[in-house]
Predict the 3D structure of the following.
Amino acid sequence: MKILVVADYESMSNAAAQIVQGQIARDPRSVLGLATGSTPLGVYKTLAEYHRQGLDFAELTTFNLDEYVGLAADHPQSYRHYMQENFFSKVNIRPENTHIPNGAAQDLQAECLRYEQLMAEAGGIDLQLLGIGSNGHIGFNEPGTAFGSQTQVVDLTESTIQDNARFFATPQDVPTQALSMGIKSIMQAKAIVLMASGANKADAVHAALRGPVTPHVPASVLQLHPFVTFVVDQAAAGRL
Ligand code: PGA
């Protein structure tokens, strides 16, 4: 486990983007696991800048962590839409190589199985980017999620709905369910980078790194992974 404490959001984004760049330089056919939310926006912006300077994404494959249930791919708050807007449209990645669970699937259970199978067929994830919820969640794996879980339908907790309400007109518009890679799916990645910025993440970062390994703090499972880097700004590191 490596812990990089950097000054601020911009340094966090640059540090994480450099790790991604290194991965692509080592293997242009890498499989990246991607995250959404506010935290990775700076990473995607920096990677788009690297692309303008010549970084090639043509052979890359990506799998996103999660998607809301019930939002069509073109809904402005869907994670497919977020990824298109903030990253995929800015680099030369092939659309067919970008994977996100389909939250509008008729059969959600079948969609979860299909997603796990696709990841396996791609040879697994080489580098997984993660944010962390203020409640310690990774992906949409809320406190209490079994460490053995794979991609599944999850109920969002009230705190996650509140955290994400800022993106929707009213808290009632936030979907209450999502499809999310499970803890086991995430732990199967060969390397993991977790980013956190801001004082509202300080308790979660502290619990993840210094607390017991427990399903009550999903991110604490990362203590068991051999290649994890936490990139946290000073505010998020405030309790370490
Ligand atoms: P955020 O979400 O980046 O919007 O703070 C992080 C997360 O919930 O994993």
Q: What stands out?
A: The chain has one domain: 2-233.
